[in-house]
Design goal:
The protein is of the alpha+beta class. 31% of the residues lie in helices and 26% in strands. It contains three helices and seven strands; from the N terminus they run αββββαβαββ. The strands form two sheets. Strands 1-2-7-5-6 form a five-stranded mixed beta sheet. Strand 1 and strand 2 form a beta hairpin. It is globular and about 50 Å long.
Length: 165
């Protein structure tokens, strides 16, 4: 049996999942959304936002349920992919997500930050499969996030060389 030699396409995976990447959010302060250095892309924190603004606000375990926070993490990851698309000049220059850091605005008794992060991790596995979707991850509880967001995600990704794209 021959192995499939078809190159992986992020765009095809997104299309198959019915995900349309939105316009990347412009920086809200003095920073750059994506920095590429020596084959790595570093994505600044992304909030769960749509064209109307941040969609998941408040502290998880108080105003925000676990399920709402997971949906917010998923949306923040989509925003991160949109930032990568724009920062790399196309989503298919992205090789894979190496590390995801998920910050969760947490009520004092909330201890399921990892379960919130699963909202984003699960999306990577849905898009890429278990092997290609594997990534390192940290989930951190914090008192507050910008714009009162319930979740914020930073990414580190590997980038295909421009000559192979």
């Amino acid at each position: 049996m021959c192995a499939d030699t078809t190159p992986f396409s992020w765009q095809a995976a997104l299309d198959a999942a019915g995900i349309l990447l939105p316009a990347a959010a412009p920086p809200a302060a003095a920073y750059t959304p994506v920095v590429v250095h020596e084959g790595l892309a570093f994505v600044s924190g992304q909030l769960p936002r749509d064209e109307t603004g941040v969609t998941t606000v408040g502290r998880v375990g108080e105003e925000v349920t676990l399920e709402e926070a997971q949906a917010g993490a998923r949306l923040a990851l989509v925003r991160g992919l949109a930032a990568l698309r724009d920062g790399l000049g196309g989503i298919d220059r992205l090789d894979r997500i190496l590390k995801m850091t998920v910050f969760v605005s947490s009520g004092p008794d909330f201890v399921e930050q990892s379960a919130v992060a699963d909202g984003a991790s699960t999306l990577l596995f849905e898009l890429l499969g278990l092997e290609r979707g594997r990534h390192a991850r940290s989930a951190v509880g914090v008192a507050k996030l910008p714009r009162n967001a319930a979740v914020e995600i930073e990414l580190i990704a590997s980038v295909k060389p421009a000559s192979s794209f």
